[in-house]
Amino acid sequence: MKEEVINQELDKDQWKLEAQAIINDVKQHVMDIKVSEKLQNSNQFFYLNLITLENLKFCIELSNAGFTIVGNEHDNISNRGDDQFETLYSLLNFVSPQYRYSFGNSLIDKLKQLNDF
After folding, report:
1. Cα 64 from Cα 58, distance rounded (Å)
2. Are 49 and 30 within 8 A, CB to CB?
C-alpha cells in the first residue's frame, strides 16, 4: 500500500507500517523525515515532520484525501495548504527542487548499474 492514497481506515499497527514504508521510500532524498511524536495520529490520518534538502521544514498530514502540507514548522498544523497530493513524491517534487535532482540522480545510478550487468 505504500505511496498510495489510503482508501480505508488503518488500524494502529497498519498506519505505523504505512508511515515507515513512506519514510523509507524518500529518506535518502530529504534531510529528515519522521512521524510526529507530539501530534495525535489516528487510524484516519497521521502527521510527518519533514526537512527538505533545502532545509525547509514542513508538517504533512496523510489521510484518505492524500498528502497535505499543514504547517511550515514541525508539529504545527496551523497553516493548512489548499494543495493535496496523491503521493509524497508529488508533494516533494512541488516543494523541493533538490529532491527532484536527488531522485533523478538515483534513477540514473540504478540504470547504470543495470547496464553494467
Report:
1. 19
2. no
Q: What is the pLDDT of residues 3-41, one digit of tens each?
A: 444 445 667 678 788 889 999 999 999 999 999 999 998
Model confidence over 42-59: pLDDT tens digits? 888 899 999 999 999 999
**3-class DSSP assignment, residue 84:** strand
* CA separation for the pair 78, 76 (Å, rounded): 6
* 49-61 core/surface letters (b: 16 or more CB in 10 A; e: else): bbebbeeebbbbb
In the chain, domain spans: 10-113
Class of the CATH-defined domain 10-113? alpha beta
Determine the Cα–Cα distance for residues 82 and 68; give it in Å rounded to an integer.
Answer: 8
**Phi, psi at 15, each rounded to 5°:** -70, -30
Q: What is the DSSP letter of 73?
A: S
